[in-house]
Structures are given as structure tokens and as C-alpha cells.
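To the wet lab folks,

You asked to see what we're planning to order before we commit. Fair enough. Below is the target structure as C-alpha cells, and below that is the sequence we designed to fit it. If anything looks off to you, flag it before the synthesis order goes out.
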């Protein structure tokens, strides 16, 4: 049958999920062969749970936040797959609205949460249920093109407006933030940022594409406006080096 959406892995894995309602079919895109298929238990409806699911690196299980029968983060095998028994970690009320960003390896899951307008990340260990220290994020619009995990599972990148380094002078109006690239080290909980100077600030806070290279040595962001675009590529982790800017004339980008 037909499926409604595809769920891609967060790290370097060939497995994707074809999803229709609660039905899931895993596909190995490298070998171009189907994997396990099955029907998942309904996740339940709860405002504290963000929709969505991601595959495990081996394509045998899915990771998602669910509210039934309990509010938990769950890794569960797909139907006829060979995944291990389901594992769950309780989501406490202090976390806010939660979702699984992806599996960093066979045990660790990156969880994104939002509460009172503040977004954050936590690394959860599913075998022990332990939660890492929360990493607070700047205000940004999370979508498929903004907020990405590196293929090796170590870094998380997003584009957002950074507040001014200095407060406005007395009597001056509020100042708009400057668009920056933020890169978070998920192992250490630290981050670096780099101003995006190659794109007008009006368009530079919402990329239409954001990705690491497979070896994580490069990082690129695509910005579009009026049918044209610009691709900005940085060396990673040498972000202070001037990026390479590649204009894309109108008509060369595929339609949205």
C-alpha cells in the first residue's frame, strides 16, 4: 500500500521508515531491500508528546515518545523484526513537550523538549534510564531543515538569531538578533556559534536545508528566496574560516 511519510535516521544509517498511521515499514536504502514491517500500538493523545518517530540504527525498532499506557520515551521492535524487547524511560512533567530527535548510537537517544517557550536537549540512556544534563537552546523554528544531528551522533546544529552581545542604550528600542549557526557538542554539553554574514538577516534564520557531510568535516546551509538560493558551506570545526558561498540562480532549485 501507500505510505503517508518517511522517517529518516538521525545518524549515518541506511534505514528509513515508511509510515501510514500506526503501520510502519522499514527500508534499507543502501541495499534497496525491505526490512521489518508491523503495526505499532497507538501513541495516545497528550499535549506533552510531540508526534513523530525515528528508526534505530539497525532498522529493527522505532523510537518515539508515547502517552499510552504511560508517558514514556520508548524504543520498540517493529512487528516481525529482530529488535530487542521494548525499552521505556519515564517522561516526567518537568520536561515539557517531548519528542525523540534520533538515536545517537545503540543505546543513547537525543530528546528535544519545550516548556514555557524554552527548548532544550537531553541525551537519554535507554538501558539505564539515566538522563544527561539539559542543554538549553536559543529560540528557533524547529523543522526538518533546522535542527540536525551529525552522522556520528556527536553534534547538533541549528540556525537561530543570537541576541545582541550588549544591551541597548538607554532609550533605544529593542534590537533584532543576528542570525548565527549554533553547533552543540552532545558529549560535553558545550556549543560554539558563528554569524551568518553571507545572507540577508531577513532570510538567514530559516534555512531550507541544513546538513553535515558524511565525515562531519563540512557543514552546509541552504537559504532560498524568490526562486533562487544560496548555499553556505563551512569547514567543521574550523568555523572561523570564511565559508564558501555558492549562489543558485532562479530555476535551478526543484519546486518545493
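Sequence we intend to order:
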Amino acid at each position: 500500500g501507500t505510505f503517508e511519510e518517511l522517517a529518516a535516521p538521525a545518524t549515518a544509517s541506511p534505514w528509513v521508515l515508511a509510515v501510514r498511521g500506526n503501520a510502519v515499514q522499514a527500508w534499507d536504502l543502501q541495499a534497496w531491500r525491505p526490512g521489518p514491517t508491523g503495526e505499532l500500538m497507538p501513541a495516545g493523545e497528550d499535549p506533552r508528546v510531540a508526534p513523530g518517530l525515528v528508526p534505530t540504527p539497525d532498522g529493527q525498532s522505532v523510537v518515539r515518545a508515547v502517552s499510552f499506557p504511560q508517558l514514556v520515551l520508548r524504543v520498540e521492535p517493529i512487528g516481525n523484526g529482530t529488535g530487542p524487547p521494548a525499552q521505556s524511560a519515564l517522561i516526567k512533567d518537568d520536561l515539557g513537550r517531548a519528542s525523540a530527535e534520533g538515536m545517537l548510537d545503540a543505546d543513547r537517544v537525543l530528546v528535544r523538549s519545550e516548556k514555557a517557550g524554552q527548548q532544550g536537549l537531553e541525551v537519554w540512556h535507554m538501558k539505564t534510564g539515566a538522563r544527561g544534563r539539559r542543554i538549553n537552546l536559543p529560540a528557533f523554528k524547529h523543522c526538518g531543515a533546522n535542527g540536525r544531528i551529525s552522522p556520528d551522533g556527536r553534534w547538533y546544529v541549528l540556525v537561530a538569531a543570537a541576541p545582541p552581545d550588549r544591551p541597548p542604550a538607554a532609550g533605544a528600542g529593542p534590537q533584532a538578533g543576528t542570525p548565527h549557526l549554533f553547533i552543540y557538542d552532545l558529549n560535553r554539553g558545550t556549543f560554539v556559534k558563528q554569524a551568518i554574514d553571507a545572507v540577508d538577516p531577513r532570510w538567514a534564520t530559516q534555512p531550507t536545508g541544513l546538513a553535515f557531510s558524511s565525515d562531519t568535516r563540512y557543514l552546509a546551509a541552504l537559504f532560498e528566496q524568490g526562486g533562487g538560493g544560496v548555499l553556505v558551506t563551512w569547514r567543521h570545526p574550523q568555523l572561523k574560516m570564511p565559508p564558501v558561498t555558492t549562489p543558485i540562480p532562479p530555476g535551478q532549485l526543484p519546486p518545493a
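Structural context that might help your review: The two ends are 25 Å apart (CA to CA). The chain has a mean pLDDT of 88.

Thanks,
Computational group
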